[in-house]
Amino acid sequence: MDASSGFLRQVIDINPHFIFVKDRQGRFTLVNEAIAEAYGTTVESLVGKTDADFNSNVEEVAHFRADDLEVMDSLQEKLIPLEVITDSKGNVRYLQTIKRPVVDADGVARHVLGVATDITAVKLADDARRALEAQMLHAQKLESLGLLAGGIAHDFNNLLVGVLTNADIASRKLGTSSPAAGSIEQIRVAAMRAAELCRQMLAYAGRGEVTVERINLTDVVHELAQLMLASVNKNATVKTELASRVPAIAADPTQLRQVVMNLITNAADALEGAEGTITVATGVRDLSARELEADCTKQPPRPGRYVHVEVTDTGCGMDSDTIARMFDPFFSTKVVGRGLGLAAVLGIVRSHGGAILVRSSPAAGTTCSVHFPVGTADASVDQTVIPERRLLVVDDEPIVLIAVKEILELEGYVVATAHTGQEAIEAFRREPDMFVGVLLDMTMPRLGGVDVMRELRSIRADVRVILMSGYERSRAAQLEQPPAGFLQKPFRSEDLLDAVVKLHA
C-alpha cells in the first residue's frame, strides 16, 4: 500500500494541472504540488484544511463550496468553464475545472475529485484579442461617423450659402427701413448658428478649417481664464495650475481654444450645479506606448514628448461604459444639452496627431487630459492679387452658383458660371484672358476643384483662383501651387466680397 501511495503521489505531483479531493466538510484529503505552489505552501499544510483557511476571497470560497456540494448531491460530473483564484502573490489566475463525485459502495458520494487546468495565458490572450477587435470596431465606427458628419456638413454648408447670400440680397433690395428687415436678420442669425454646428461636425470629422501656428498652450489657457469663470455656475471654483515654461506646439489657435472651453464646459456640467472645483493644468511629459493604449481617439500616436492641458472636476464621475461613449456625437448623460462639443474635441485632437486620456469613476470626479505632440508650425500661405472685374464662378450646386453670381453682380462684377469642372475648363479655354479670377468649388463630382485649378493654370499660368469648400483649407494650403484665396462654406456676402476685393488690392 505504501508503494502504491508513493506511486500515486509521484503521478499527481508531476502533473501540471491542479488535482484535489475534498470531503463533505470541504476539507482537502488529497492535493498535488501544483496547488501547493499556487498558494505558496506545502502539500502537508493543505491536507485537512478548507479553502477558507488559506483563501481570503470570500466570494471565491463560496463558489467552490457550492459546486462541490452540487456534484456530490447530484452524483453528476460538472464542467466549470471558468473559475477565478487569487494565488499567494496576489495574481489572478483563471482555471477550467472538472469535478466528479467519488461514490462509495453504498451509493453515497462523500468526496469530490477535481482536476483544474490553468488557462490564464489563453484567457489573457483572448481578452487582448477581444479588446483589439473592440478597438478596431470603435475606430471603424468613428471613421464612418466622421465620413457621415463631413458629408452632411459639406452638403448643408452649400445650402447655407444660398440662405445667407439670399438673405443679404433681400436685405440690400428692401433696405433697413423695410418691415421685413428684422425677419431677414433673424434668418441670418439662425443660418450662422447652423453654420457653427457644421463647423463642429467638420471638426469631429477631422476636416475643419485649420490654420496651424506655433503656440504656447499655457498662454492660451491663461488668456481663457476670465472666460472660464463666465462659463461655469457660481457654485464652482476654477483653479489653474499652469506650467511656466512648456515647448511650443503646432496647432490651430481657434480649435485649441475650442478644446479647452469644451473640456471646461463638460467639467462644469459634471458638477450639476453643486459646489465643486474645476482645476485646469498645463504641462509637458513623455508618454509611453503603454500609456497611449488608453487613448480615447482610438488612433494612438507614437510615444514621445507631449504638451498637455488637463481638466479635473470633483463632480459625479463616470463608469467605464460612459467613458467609452463620452466622445460620441450627441451622446450625453443629461436629458438636455446634447451636442457635438466633446465629439468636436475628439476630431480636433485626432487631426492634430494628439491623444486624449480620461480617468474617472462614479462619485470620484473626472480628469480629462489632452496631449499635443511638440512640433513646429507650417509656413503660412501668401495670397497674391491682380486688378480686374470679370469672374468665373464654378460650383455643382445651383443654389450656391445663383447666390454667388447675384451678390457679385450687385457689386458690379461681370460673372460667368459653370456647373462642372469640364464646363469651366472649356469656358476658360475659349477666353483665357477675359477672366481675372475664378471662384472654384473644391469638391465637385468627377473633376474636383484642385484638378480644375491645375488645368486652368496650364492654360494660363497667372490665373488667380479662390477655392471654396466646407472643409479642406489645410489641403489647399499644402498644394505645391496654392490658390490665391480660400472661402470657407458657408460664407456671408461680406466674406465673399472681401475675398474678391483682395484680388484688386
Account of the protein in words:
The chain is elongated and about 115 Å long. The protein has helices at residues 2-14, 33-38, 43-46, 51-54, 58-74, 120-174, 181-204, 217-223, 225-231, 253-271, 289-292, 320-325, 341-351, 398-410, 421-430, 449-459, 473-477, 493-501; strands at 18-23, 28-31, 78-86, 92-103, 109-118, 213-215, 236-241, 249-251, 276-287, 304-313, 355-360, 366-373, 390-394, 414-418, 437-441, 464-469, 485-488. With 505 residues, the chain is α/β, with parallel strands linked by helices. It is 45% helix and 23% strand. The protein folds into 4 domains: 2-118, 2-Layer Sandwich (Beta-Lactamase), CATH 3.30.450.20; 131-204, Helix Hairpins, CATH 1.10.287.130; 213-373, Histidine kinase-like ATPase, C-terminal domain (Heat Shock Protein 90, 2-Layer Sandwich), CATH 3.30.565; 390-504, 3-Layer(aba) Sandwich (Rossmann fold). It has 18 helices and 17 strands. It has a 5-stranded antiparallel beta sheet with strand order 2-1-5-4-3, sandwiched between helices. The protein has a 5-stranded mixed beta sheet with strand order 7-9-10-12-11.
In short:
By secondary structure, the protein is an alpha/beta fold.
